Amino acid sequence: MKKVLLATSALFLTAGVASAEITFSGTAGAGIVQNGTGADTTVWSGVDINIAASATTDGGVTISMADDIGGGNLIDWNDDYAVDAQGTAIGAPAVTVKSGALTVTFDDNAIDHLDSDAVAGDLSVNTTMGGLTLSVVVDVDQSSGTDMSYKLGYAAGDLTVGYTAQDDSSKLSASYKVGDMTVGVSSDDNGAGVTTNEASVSYTAGNVTLKGAADDQDGWDLDVAYSVGAISVAYGTDESEEWDLNASYDLGGGVAAKASLTSGDFMAAGLTFAF
Predict the structure, then answer these.
(1) How many CB atoms lie within 10 A of CB 89?
(2) Partners of 20 in beta bridges
(3) Tens-place pLDDT, residues 4-48
(4) Cα dist from 62 to 27, 100, 126, whole Å
(5) Of 110, 138, 134, nearest to 123 (Cα)?
(6) Is 106 helix (H, G, I), strand (E, B) or coil?
(7) DSSP state of 81
(8) CA 177/CA 162 separation, integer angstroms
């Protein structure tokens, strides 16, 4: 009887796997970190495992699920510069339904609004029509204080134009690529009665990329990046004299040595690998 039950269970599991594509991927790493002025230097180690599954109906509609599970801590190297604790349990997954050019995603309180990721919605809709793109994020239960945000984009050759609206704020932007240079302009009313106009430029010369932006509110930032072979180095600063420095060395096989240093006395170094 046990053999019969085991055989039946194996057939059931095999049938389930055959009907959907399941993938696992992730990152892991370890090293040292000093997180802020006067903080002790400590050791960090962690893993983040991504789980995804998808199935396609006879009518060509694809339904997919994605979530992650992890343990320990990983470093947010070149964004928030923080030590991120990894969740040890699977939460509510993001579920996406895709049919042709239309994609709908369900993820309760976990979809960033389009003009400010300080608040999140529950439902997003994305579609394309030729060079036109439309994205909408809706807070179904109205728990974030932002009911809806949307973004319209249009691309024609080297020209890209976008319009984003959220609450009382809106932003109009445009960029144009000329050879190795991209220039951009934007106007953002911020929803506070003060419109900020900004101009930006990005230029790539061989292994070096320069990016700069300045606005009419005395704000500016400058970034320079250098990459050659397995080595990448990037430095950024702004009008407040804050700066950050990032370096990485690709060791092959998905393994990299990384280091970050900021004016806010954040320092991290270690090895990471992807799988």
Answers:
(1) 6
(2) none
(3) 333 434 434 444 444 678 999 999 999 999 998 889 999 999 999
(4) 26, 9, 15
(5) 138
(6) strand
(7) -
(8) 15
Q: Judge whether 81 and 260 are in contact, CB under 8 Å.
A: yes
Whether the model pTM is above 0.85: no
> 139: burial class by Cβ within 10 Å (0-12, 13-18, 19+)?
buried
| Alpha carbon distance 42, 39 (integer Å) | 9
pLDDT in tens, 102-113: 999 999 999 999
Report the alpha-carbon distance of residue 79 to residue 30 in Å, rounded: 18
- Hey, is 143 helix, strand or coil? coil
Tokens, residue 8: 């039946």
The amino acid that residue 107 corresponds to is D
Token pair of 80 as six digits: 């928030």
Contact 164, 179 (CB under 8 A): no
- Residue 204 tokens, joined: 């790539």
Do 119 and 109 form a contact (C-beta atoms < 8 A)? no
